[in-house]
């Protein structure tokens, strides 16, 4: 009997709005009114200490309705304030409005979205690309969205979609390959097939932003140089770095997933608590360790893989780069350097990151992530003939 696992995940896709001038005015008024409602709820919450959502609802709901907010927009404003309990929220800027399924609806036939505003319900055209159309047609449902206004006056709607992943057979002898991914600093990701994805550009760019922020921070610490322009530059630098990191990780994970086929199994290391276990000493060394967004990288890789019908499993990361894939001998001495692995028991030699990726795939196979059927010919080749006869020099 063959069993199937169906995953449902939530994705967000940004679509550009093309409002008419009067529609743009209504959106602007809605954003302003929503921010006023959030700030009123925040003042009441701070004065009374009622940050719990239902307690705050009883205190401010009628006030928000009297301000002109629709019922569900008032509920969303209260929810936004309640979610920020414990954070240092001082003021809400008129930059976005949260919508749910009652205040937002999508019509793909004419590519429009219906939004509740302070001037009634409006149906606004969308500007969609092929990527957005593909996701919207594939979506099981639209859960809501967030209306935002860009710095150049453009309007966007960030739609929250529920998407069914392709059915992935479990326990089938016709399953695909098991591909292990070793994560590191010099090579951000290494696969058993030999593909290596460098993370050097990510490290150098983040170090550049670190130095730039230090320069700006020194000016902020001197009152004579703490100008409005310097404060804006500080805010822009943080946003630029975050966008660069996300863009780089999306590109890298897409390249990895493009190498996989539906039915394959992707094996990753379970790196929870990695930063608390680091042995790096010194402020700079620990900062370099924290430059690598492993959790975000794995998150992007996992959701892209699941959308393609690739299962993702996590394995124990201990000694993956110290265990010989030929004889199984584990020793710290086996890892001669950052790049070189040479087994002291059998003499097998190869790149250390490649060895780790093979061991990760083997552990996933041992956990029952797949079977050694015809679909695993590539892994069998890696673990069999090549490990017996291939001895590459250090590079």
Write the SSE topology.
Blueprint: E1 3-5, E2 8-17, H1 21-48, H2 53-66, H3 71-82, E3 96-100, E4 104-107, E5 112-117, E6 120-127, H4 130-138, E7 141-149, E8 155-164, E9 168-170, E10 178-180, E11 182-183, E12 187-190, E13 196-198, H5 200-220, H6 228-257, E14 265-269, H7 283-290, H8 294-307, E15 311-315, E16 340-342, E17 349-351, H9 352-366, H10 377-383, H11 385-389
Parallel strand pairs: 10-14, 14-15
Antiparallel strand pairs: 1-9, 2-6, 2-8, 3-7, 4-5, 5-6, 7-8, 11-12, 12-13, 16-17
Helix pairs in contact: 1-2, 1-3, 2-3, 5-6, 6-8
In words, what does this structure look like?
It is a single chain. By secondary structure, this protein is an alpha+beta fold. It folds into two domains: 3-164, no CATH class; 171-389, no CATH class. Helices cover 41% and strands 22% of the residues. It is built from eleven helices and 17 strands. It has helices at residues 21-48, 53-66, 71-82, 130-138, 200-220, 228-257, 283-290, 294-307, 352-366, 377-383, 385-389; strands spanning 3-5, 8-17, 96-100, 104-107, 112-117, 120-127, 141-149, 155-164, 168-170, 178-180, 182-183, 187-190, 196-198, 265-269, 311-315, 340-342, 349-351. The strands form five sheets. It has a seven-stranded antiparallel sheet with strand order 3-7-8-2-6-5-4, sandwiched between helices. Helix 2 (53-66) packs across helix 3 (71-82). The two termini are 48 Å apart. Mean pLDDT is 82; it is low at 1-6 and 371-395.
